[in-house]
Amino acid sequence: MKNSPTYIPVVIIGGGPVGLFLAICLLKKGIQCKILEKRHEPVPDSRSLGIHPVSLELFDKIDLTQPFLNQGLKIQKGFALSSDKVLGEINFEGCPKPHNYILACPQFTSEAILREELNRLDDSVLVTKAEFNELKQKEDQVEIYFTDEQGNNRFITADYVIGCDGKNSPVRQRSSIHYSGKRYDDTYIMGDFEDNTDFGSDAAVYLPPDGLIECFPLPNGMRRWVVKTDSYVENPDSTIIVEFIRKRINHDLTAIQNVMISSFGVQHFIAETFVKGRVILAGDAAHVVSPIGGQGMNLGWLDAWRVAEILSGDDIDLNLKEYSESQKKITRKVAKRAELNMALGRKTAIPSIRNLFIKSLLKKPLKNKIAQLFTMRGLESWWI
User: What's the pTM?
Assistant: First the structure.
C-alpha cells in the first residue's frame, strides 16, 4: 500500500560502498529509499582501496569527488619489475583528464565519506543493526521482512528491493537466482605496512620466478603489499609475508609497523540474471571477480549508477532487462582483465619469456592501451 507508513519506493539491503552510493544517487534523483544494514559502523580495515577514473567521473556527477580527493592518494605511475630490474612503467598521466590517476583510498574511509554524505541528505535512510530475513514479491510491490536493532520482527513494502548484500547475498538466495562460476587455484596474502620503499606515490609490481608481489601506496605513509602464495595461508601473520618479500625481492619489512594481514583466494561468480521481478542485484550480490586489479568495488558502483538512472526514468521494466544483460557483459570483460593480471603473476619456470612479454606490452603503441585497461577504460568497447 503506497500510502502506508511502512511503504518506501526503494529498499536497499546492504550498506557497504555500493549500497551507500546507490542510496545517494537515488536521493539526488528525488527517489526515497531505505538501507537495511547489519553493521553499525563502517568496516574497520582497508579492504578495497583502488578508486578508478570511471568511478570518480560518477562522483563528479553528484558533487561527491572532493571528499575522496581530500583523503585519498593519487597514483599516476606504476612500475613492472623482475626481482631487481625495471621491465617498464605504466603512466596514467596520458589518460583522459581530469582523473588521469587511480585514487588509493581505504574502504573504511570510503564508507565513512559515503555515510556522511548520505546522512547529510537524509539521516533517516540508513538503518543499522537490521537483519534482512525474507521477501515476498507481489504483482505491484515487494514485501521485505527484517529484524530491527531491538530484535523486533518488522516488514516494509517497496516498489523495488535491491540486493547490495555481498557475494553470499540473502536477497539473491531468497529470490532463487542462480549464481554460477568457479574458484581459481590462485591464492594470496596481503598486508598494510609503513612505507619504507623509495617509490613514493608510485605503485610497483614485481614478477620474480616464484610469483607476483604488488605494492601500492596508501595515504598516511602506508603501503599495501600483496604476495602470490602456492597455497592458502590459514593463519596469516606479518612474519610470513615479510619472509616471502625478503626471499623473492630482497626487501626488508622486519620491525616495520603493520596494521593489517589477511589471506584470500580468488573466484569468479555471476548471477544468472541481475533482475527478477521487483528484485534487483548490484555489486558482489550480482558478480564477484578477482580482486587482483582492484576492479570489484568500482564495478559495483557502475551497477548502482545505472540502476539509479533507470529507476528515475521511463520504461523501467524494459531498461532493467537491458541493465541485466549489459552489466553481465561488462562483468565478463572485467573478469577477463582480472584473469590476465593473475596469469602474468603466477610462478613460472621460464621468467625470461614472461619478462620479454611484459616489456613488449609496456612499449608503444600498446603502452597507452595497457594504461586504459588498468584504469577500467573501454568496458563497453569490443577490445578486451
Answer: 0.95
